[in-house]
Amino acid sequence: MAYYSVEGKTREQLRDLATFLRNKLQLDDVLYFPIVELLEIMPEYFPGFSYEIVSDDELPAGNHAETDVINWHITIKETVYNRACAGEGRDRMTIAHEIAHFITLCVCGFKLARSFIKPKTFEDPEWQAKCFAGELMIPKHLIGDMTPVQVASVCGVSYDAAKYQCQKYHGGDVD
Predict the structure, then answer these.
(1) DSSP assignment of 132-148, as one string?
(2) I need a surface site. Which of 17, 57, 154, 161 has the fewest CB within 10 A?
(3) Cα dihedral sign for 175, 131, 91, 145?
(4) Model confidence pLDDT, tens digit, residues 59-82
(5) Is the dihedral of CA 160, 140, 51, 87 positive or negative?
(6) d(Cα 173, Cα 117) in Å, to the nearest integer?
């Protein structure tokens, strides 16, 4: 089995990158990150970047979206995009995850390599994209001691994503 790995990054480094992006977009103090709007303006800021909304049967079952780092292209299933536009947290996070792949691999140039050895967590491009997306959508400096239910509501993410980030920020079980 083949794996992909990237140069290792810590959660703190990925948080700093997400904070930098929020700052550049002048969204430092915004809880509900406008992820769909970001996707829609990215071609203006990244020449060569494109995205496409496709019918659900154009991507394999189980794939909600994918990022082609060679061609700087994100493909998103139509239902995922529509639900994200409607504010569905899981689908908003899916788009954030794909944007995270683009930002880390294409814009920042994190080195991607193919390997036959399973990467360490902090070298896994999927973990890095999940981590970056979580840090972008659920900013630690804004949620304070909110509960996962509150975070899910104000940040527009799923309860599971909110709970996961709250556990990372506060440790232990949170409810």
Answers:
(1) HHHHHHS-HHHHTT--H
(2) 57
(3) positive
(4) 999 999 999 999 999 999 999 999
(5) positive
(6) 32
